[in-house]
Structures are given as C-alpha cells and as structure tokens.
C-alpha cells in the first residue's frame, strides 16, 4: 500500500511517501478501512493524532473512515495548509 | 459609458470566450481577501483581464521580507499599506476597473456586510482563522469562493460553495489549533510558488465568472512544485456543512484566547450546584480533587463530550488554569452557544483559597 504525504504530514513522517508492506510478508494485521488506517498511522506517528482535520483520499477520492482499503490502493494524506 | 473592449481583443478572439464572456467579466464584482503572495497575481490578472469591480482587502503593511514573493511592491514602498499601493498600481494598469481598497482585516463583524457586495470571493489569506471565516460567511451568503493555500513547495486550489457544491469544511471540518500547522512566517515559502497558485486561483475565478470550462468544484488540486506533479482529489459535499445560519463567536487563534475565566472566589461564592470538569490526567485527579468534579483529561475531551451537559454552564479546572483554558476555548469553538468557564489559577489557587 502506497501512502502519499502532503503538507505537514510530509514533515511529520519525514518523507514524501510511505509504503506499507503487505501482511503476508510481516504477518502483522493490516488496516482494512480508512478508520483502521488512521489508527495504524497514529500509532506509528503519534503527531498525526494531533491534527484537527486530516483528509484521506483513496485512489484520488476523498474517503470516510468506513471506506475499504486494499494493498493495491493509492492513499493520500491531505492536511489543510494555511500559507498565502 | 460603453467600455472599450479593444484591449481585450486577444482573449475575445478565443472562440469559446468571445465578447459575451468578456461582458460577463465586466459585470462582475470580486473581493480579494489578502493582498500578499496569492492576492497579488489574482488582482493583477483579474484587473488586466477586465473584471469590472475589484475589492482589495488587507490591513497589512509591506515588509522587506514580503518582496521576494509579493512582486507588485517595491523596496521604496516598504512600510506602506498593501491595499493602498496595490489599488494605485492596479488603477494604472486598467483605468476601467472600479477598484475599492478596504484597509481592514476580514473579521466576524465586517465579513457578512463586505462579502454581500460581491459576486465571488478569492481567499488569498494566510491563516486558518480567515479561511474558516471566509467559508462560513460565503455559505451564509450563498457566494462561491476560490481557495488557494500553500505549504512548503506545495499548493492547494479549489472552488468552494459553487452551485451547491461542497465547502471548505467538507474537506477540512475542523479548524486547526494554533501551532498545529506551520505558516509561511515560520516555515518559509519559495517566492514563485504563491505566484503559481495565485494564478491558478485567478483562472478559476475567471471560469466561475464567465462560465467557461469546468470549474474546480468538488475537486481539490494538489500541486507539488518540487516534482511539477499535479493531482486532483474528488470530494463530496456534506449537507451539514451547508447548515450555517450565523458566524461563530470567534475565529481567532488559540494563542489570543478570550474564553471566559472565573476567579476561584467567585466560583465558590455562588452555592448553586455546578457542573465541574477536571481536565487533569487520571493520576493527578486521583491524587486529590474537588468533590463535585468529574474527570475528563484534556486529551480525551472530545471523546468525553457525551458526559458534558452543554445546556448548563460548564466549569473547567486543572492544576494551574492553563489546560482548563484550552478546554474551554476548544469547546467554545465547537459549541459557540454554550456557557464555558475556566477557573483561574486552577487547583493551585483553590488550595490557597480553601486553606
């Protein structure tokens, strides 16, 4: 699963994208939906939990927490940005 | 007076634009909120292309460190009001445009009155308080607005509240707290980036006004200057976000909080039963608390909302009065109608008073 990072999430995680290996390799349970993905990423990067709003897109569509995610999906983390 | 359209010849020659689209621009009134890095290209192009009326709104003055991206201003204008300098230069650029300089920041007291005079708003501001205020005011007044914002080498562009389309809150429901997302002052910005994003905003504004092309409504454009990659993310409206009938009491940042505080003496003077929430950690709470207090640690405040009766006044307490202030401020943003107090000086003060 590829996760593209925008705005401050890029700074928090420290790279422009993140790759989550599939479960068959690591044996760990992978997130099945966007809500689980939020929790999963929040555990790995607690600073993400402090964001009041963080939009998540699955395959270029805004997704709510019930949206299913699969290993071949392209995910994007999109926080608001304020500069002007 | 019949306007001279010859100066727009090169764009009216475009088959899909033509004189009818040009006259739509000439009849339009656009408010540009913020005359910084984004607002300048928006103002220059909308003015050059023949938008009939432009309102320029900002109360900031030109600083030397603005010049690398705010390319309308020059060194000798440092210290002068941005809107005054911009209005003068834009009048020279196109004498046919009616230009109004509004040397004010948009706030909850002037937003509705000012925005109601315009057909379209361009949010070229540089802070979340203004962005959420622009959103809410435009939703109340049913005006579309063109959004543009930057972070690092990235930009975001969209058109919100266009023909019943989604709003800024459909994408980002909650306003970030102070310090959560860095701004350009802290984070820095490459001079050309606001130029690119501002020009994309100008393009969307022209499309909305002249009704050409596909307006960027329900789509967020993400532009990455480092890779020259653009991406469109689709999103839908959440009808709840259209349900705004009045502005919030506050759009200010947490750092200049005006959440109500109450002195310890006053809290105890009135013997009425009160709803007191202790926002310290469980361990702190267990080591000693007021009898009537209920513990909801600050980090769990949003999850613990069900336990709070917002119909009644809510009093917050912590150790020193700092966390309780944050709690009251946070809830006041979510529930502007509620009555919220933070007990000044917290448990430290209470233990002195009650000794």
What is the N-to-C succession of helices and strands of chain B? HHEHEHEHEHEEHHHEEEHEHEEHEH
Instruction: Give the oligomeric state of the chains in this entry, treating copies of one chain as homo and distinct chains as hetero.
Output: heterodimer
CATH topology of chain A, by name, is: Ubiquitin-like (UB roll)
Strand order of the largest sheet of chain A: 2-1-5-3-4
Strand tally of chain B is: 13
Distance between the termini of chain A: 33 Å
Average pLDDT of chain B: 91
SSE blueprint:
The complex is a heterodimer of chains A (84) and B (355).
Chain A: E1 2-5, H1 7-13, E2 17-19, H2 23-26, H3 34-44, E3 55-58, E4 61-62, E5 74-78
Parallel strand pairs in A: 1-5
Antiparallel strand pairs in A: 1-2, 3-4, 3-5
Chain B: H1 9-12, H2 18-26, E1 29-33, H3 39-49, E2 53-57, H4 82-93, E3 98-102, H5 111-115, E4 120-123, H6 128-141, E5 145-151, E6 154-160, H7 168-171, H8 184-187, H9 192-210, E7 219-224, E8 229-234, E9 261-262, H10 264-269, E10 275-278, H11 282-286, E11 293-295, E12 314-317, H12 322-334, E13 340-343, H13 346-353
Parallel strand pairs in B: 1-2, 1-4, 2-3, 4-5, 9-13, 10-11, 10-12, 12-13
Antiparallel strand pairs in B: 5-6, 6-7, 7-8
Helix pairs in contact in B: 3-9
Descriptive notes:
The complex is a heterodimer of chains A (84) and B (355). The mean pLDDT of chain A is 91. A five-stranded mixed beta sheet of chain A has the order 2-1-5-3-4. In chain A, a hairpin with a 2-residue loop joins β3 and β4 (61-62). Chain A has a single domain, classed as Ubiquitin-like (UB roll), CATH 3.10.20. Chain A is of the alpha+beta class. Chain A is built from three helices and five strands; from the N terminus they run βαβααβββ. In chain A, 26% of the residues lie in helices and 21% in strands. Chain A has helices at residues 7-13, 23-26, 34-44; strands at residues 2-5, 17-19, 55-58, 61-62, 74-78. Chain B has 355 residues and is an alpha/beta fold. Chain B is 32% helix and 17% strand. Chain B contains 13 helices and 13 strands. Chain B has helices at 9-12, 18-26, 39-49, 82-93, 111-115, 128-141, 168-171, 184-187, 192-210, 264-269, 282-286, 322-334, 346-353, and strands at residues 29-33, 53-57, 98-102, 120-123, 145-151, 154-160, 219-224, 229-234, 261-262, 275-278, 293-295, 314-317, 340-343. In chain B, the strands form two sheets. Chain B has an eight-stranded mixed beta sheet, with helices on both faces. In chain B, strands 9-13-12-10-11 form a five-stranded parallel beta sheet. In chain B, α3 crosses α9 (192-210). Chain B starts with 8 loop residues before the first helix and ends with a helix. At the A-B interface, α1 and β4 of A face β5, β6 and β8 of B.
């Amino acid at each position: 699963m590829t996760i593209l990072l925008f705005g401050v999430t890029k700074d928090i995680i420290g790279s422009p994208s993140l790759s989550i290996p599939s479960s068959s390799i690591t044996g760990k349970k992978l997130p099945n939906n966007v809500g689980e993905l939020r929790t999963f990423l929040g555990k790995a990067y607690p600073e993400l939990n402090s964001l009041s709003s963080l939009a998540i897109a699955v395959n270029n569509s805004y997704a709510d927490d019930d949206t299913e995610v699969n290993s071949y999906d392209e995910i994007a983390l999109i926080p608001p940005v304020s500069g002007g | 007076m019949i306007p001279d359209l010859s100066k727009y010849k090169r764009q009216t020659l475009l088959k899909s634009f033509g004189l009818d689209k040009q006259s739509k621009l000439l009849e339009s009134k656009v408010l540009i909120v913020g005359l910084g890095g984004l607002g300048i290209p928006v103002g220059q192009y909308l003015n050059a292309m023949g938008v009939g009326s432009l309102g320029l709104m900002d109360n900031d003055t030109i600083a030397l460190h603005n010049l690398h991206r705010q390319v309308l201003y020059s060194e000798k204008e440092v210290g002068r009001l941005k809107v005054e300098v911009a209005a003068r230069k834009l009048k020279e650029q196109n004498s046919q445009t009616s230009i109004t300089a509004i040397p004010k920041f948009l706030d909850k007291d002037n937003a509705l009155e000012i925005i109601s005079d315009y057909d379209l708003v361009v949010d070229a501001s540089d802070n979340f308080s203004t962005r959420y205020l622009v959103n809410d005011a435009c939703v109340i007044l049913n005006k579309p607005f063109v959004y543009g914002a930057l972070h690092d080498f990235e930009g975001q562009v969209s058109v919100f509240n266009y023909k019943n389309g989604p709003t800024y809150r459909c994408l980002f429901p909650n306003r970030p707290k102070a310090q959560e997302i860095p701004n350009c002052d802290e984070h820095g910005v490459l001079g050309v980036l606001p130029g690119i994003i501002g020009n994309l905003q100008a393009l969307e504004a022209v499309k909305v006004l002249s009704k050409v092309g596909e307006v960027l409504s329900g789509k967020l454009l993400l532009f990455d200057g480092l890779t020259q990659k653009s991406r469109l993310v689709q999103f839908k409206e959440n009808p709840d976000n259209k349900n705004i009938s009045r502005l919030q009491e506050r759009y200010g940042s947490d750092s200049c909080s005006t959440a109500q505080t109450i002195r310890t003496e006053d809290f105890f003077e009135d013997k009425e039963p009160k709803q007191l929430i202790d926002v310290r950690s469980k361990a702190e709470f267990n080591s000693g608390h007021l009898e009537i207090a209920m513990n909801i640690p600050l980090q769990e405040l949003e999850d613990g909302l069900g336990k709070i009766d917002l119909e009644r006044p809510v009093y917050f307490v912590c150790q020193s009065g700092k966390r309780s202030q944050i709690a009251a401020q946070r809830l006041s943003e979510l529930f502007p109608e509620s009555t919220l107090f933070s007990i000044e000086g917290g448990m430290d003060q209470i233990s002195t008073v009650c000794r």
